[in-house]
Specification:
This protein is mainly alpha-helical. It has one domain (2-197). The chain is built from five helices and three strands. Helix 1 packs across helix 4 (104-158) and helix 3 (59-99) packs antiparallel against helix 4 (104-158). Residues 14-37 have low confidence and may be disordered.
Length: 198
């Protein structure tokens, strides 16, 4: 579930950062990765890729999402441990307060310490939230940059005038499915990523 949410967030962010373009009418009818449907496209044409399909199936996205999820899990574990310790301190304070086991002055000191600890915990939650937002933004930029770099390489051979990024809720109202090069780009970009990863 977390991974699907990451993919969705990545796709939406990529679309926003690209000032994306809309999914073609009837896109649900087309099969994006059926290489048998790829027709030769003339040099100088305008083609498109389905950004959501491309990013979701790009191995770099999967790898970076797994790394991000691992970091999120570590932060979550750390926060849970700190919150448990804090709750134990609060319970101990309440126990001592109810039974009169400490002086009022000492209970006041403990209450102030707990207040500071609670404030530190809230600041840590905010810091972790900001770190994760930054990590996610960097991840999205890496993915987008890798796609754009690959498309420059890819287009040296193909010679298209434009390669548009097509996606849900963007600006293109219709795109001919025969101009969809997602499958070919995905194969190439994954092969390049695997080679660089070795």
């Amino acid at each position: 579930m977390k991974r699907q949410l990451l993919y969705l967030t990545i796709c939406v962010s990529l679309l926003i950062s690209c000032k994306g373009v809309n999914s073609p009418e009837g896109a649900s009818e087309s099969t994006y990765f059926d290489s048998s449907r790829v027709q030769p496209i003339a040099e100088g044409s305008i083609v498109y890729v389905e950004l959501d399909s491309l990013t979701e199936n790009y191995i770099m996205t999967i790898d970076l999402a797994a790394e991000l999820e691992e970091k999120m899990n570590k932060m979550e574990t750390d926060l849970n441990n700190r919150q448990r310790r804090f709750q134990t301190s609060v319970d101990d304070f309440n126990y001592k307060n109810q039974r009169g086991l400490e002086t009022r002055a000492r209970l006041q000191e403990i209450a102030e310490e707990l207040g500071r600890e609670e404030q530190n915990l809230a600041q840590l939650v905010e810091r972790y939230r900001m770190e994760m937002a930054e990590e996610q933004m960097v991840m999205q930029r890496k993915i987008l940059q890798a796609i754009m770099d690959y498309l420059k390489e890819y287009n040296r051979e193909k010679g298209y005038k434009y390669i548009l990024g097509n996606a849900f809720d963007a600006k293109i109202l219709y795109a001919d499915p025969s101009l969809n090069i997602t499958a070919e780009v995905l194969d190439g970009i994954n092969a390049k990523y695997r080679a660089e990863k070795r």
